[in-house]
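[recover] target loaded
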């Protein structure tokens, strides 16, 4: 390896203060809440201000805060209100927190394949999965890279199917000049530890639909109709409220979002430029009409050029302190036990089996149906990324990648250029 790659450097980590942007603003917001003595959002003001500020930022009328990103997605699914045994089409490269809400609402996740270079579902992969029981499509803008939404929306709206956008990793991303989360029917964001802004946990849900917004607001608060003439608990729902303490931290963080995203994008652009001449390693593929906000930086590794592919490259990067994630997730979501063995409610296997599915084909998950997903996972190395990365950090990462790629170059391919 080169001298640059041989030296050691500690990179900022978004799991601690080195990779997060906390200062007196969060403390001041917390102090205001504690001084007020009001920690519940039903009586306080911080969560309401957060909701209003986030809605204004996205150019929408309505936002509702929730206890987590998973709670935000659960509220979105509940707003769609699937019947038992209905289906929601989604991606197999996602966190389980985006899938279990589907099951908790008695619906069945159906997995569309992904484009192996963008890691996102497309209209072409979604369409074969649509059936008469499809209640919604949930798209995930993975790593901050927007899905190709025009084609997806045209497909779904032509069939009257609502679209939920999972934007947990995509604050600040945009598609044809519009923020993600405002393109479909409902957009969901996360404030979990490692996101662009964080309050440890927390979620935000936006929609331009009055109907969906009311359903979301009710679901997050036990379906109690606050402010209604004759309030009641209208339907089955949970307490997913955000506390004023979380809202206070999130509100201070929201003021830093633009700067955080800009730094991530600027540093990602610098790394992309540095990798242009590294054979077998490609930067993220981003459409010219989209803005990737880089929750993480996803390298595509060609195993025909790099001996051992993504795993071998990742091993060498980790040796030099670049603690990356080869394959991102080790298997598609549908191969996790909860879905593979249909471990849901007791031993019922509900909603996969039962009278609600009588006459319907059996739901079966098979990796042979998702070749793009398998290829994507086999070839991706996900680099950690946060707003505290500097040019020096990026140059170090680039030098380590280049040195590792050179060390692993397959001789027959070493001089043939990029894959």
């Amino acid at each position: 390896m080169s001298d640059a790659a041989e030296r050691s450097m500690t990179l900022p980590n978004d799991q601690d203060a080195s990779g997060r942007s906390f200062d007196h603003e969060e403390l001041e917001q917390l102090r205001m809440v504690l001084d007020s003595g009001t920690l519940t959002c039903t009586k306080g003001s911080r969560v309401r201000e957060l909701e209003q500020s986030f809605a204004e930022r996205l150019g929408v009328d309505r936002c509702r805060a929730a206890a987590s990103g998973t709670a935000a997605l659960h509220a979105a699914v509940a707003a769609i209100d699937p019947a038992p045994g209905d289906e929601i089409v989604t991606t197999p490269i996602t966190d389980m927190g985006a899938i279990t809400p589907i099951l908790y609402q008695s619906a069945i996740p159906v997995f569309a394949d992904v484009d192996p270079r963008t890691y996102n579902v497309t209209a072409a992969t979604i369409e074969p999965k649509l059936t008469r029981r499809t209640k919604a499509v949930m798209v995930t803008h993975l790593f901050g890279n927007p899905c190709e939404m025009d084609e997806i929306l045209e497909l779904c709206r032509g069939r009257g199917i609502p679209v939920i956008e999972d934007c947990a990793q995509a604050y600040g991303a945009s598609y044809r000049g519009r923020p993600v989360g405002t393109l479909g029917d409902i957009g969901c964001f996360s404030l979990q530890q490692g996101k662009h802004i964080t309050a440890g946990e927390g979620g935000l849900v936006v929609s331009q639909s009055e109907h969906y917004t009311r359903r979301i607001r009710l679901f997050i608060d036990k379906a109690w109709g606050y402010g209604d003439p004759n309030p009641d608990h209208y339907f089955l729902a949970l307490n997913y409220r955000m506390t004023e303490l979380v809202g206070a931290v999130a509100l201070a963080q929201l003021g830093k979002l633009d700067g955080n995203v800009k730094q991530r994008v600027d540093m990602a652009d610098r790394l992309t430029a540095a990798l242009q001449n590294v054979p077998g390693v490609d930067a993220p593929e981003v459409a010219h009409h989209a803005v990737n906000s880089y929750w993480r930086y996803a390298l595509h590794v060609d195993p025909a050029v790099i001996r051992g592919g993504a795993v071998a490259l990742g091993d060498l990067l980790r040796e030099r302190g670049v603690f990356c994630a080869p394959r991102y997730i080790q298997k598609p979501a549908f191969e996790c036990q909860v879905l593979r063995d249909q471990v849901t409610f007791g031993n019922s296997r509900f909603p996969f089996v039962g009278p609600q599915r009588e006459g319907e084909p059996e739901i079966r998950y098979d990796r042979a149906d998702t070749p793009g997903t398998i290829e994507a996972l086999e070839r991706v190395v996900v680099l950690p990324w946060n707003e505290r990365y500097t040019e020096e950090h990026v140059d170090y990462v680039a030098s380590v990648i280049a040195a590792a790629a050179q060390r692993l170059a397959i001789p027959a391919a070493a001089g043939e250029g990029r894959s």
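[recover] notes: Residues 3-17+257-329+374-412 form a domain with the Aspartate Aminotransferase, domain 1 fold (CATH 3.90.1150.10).
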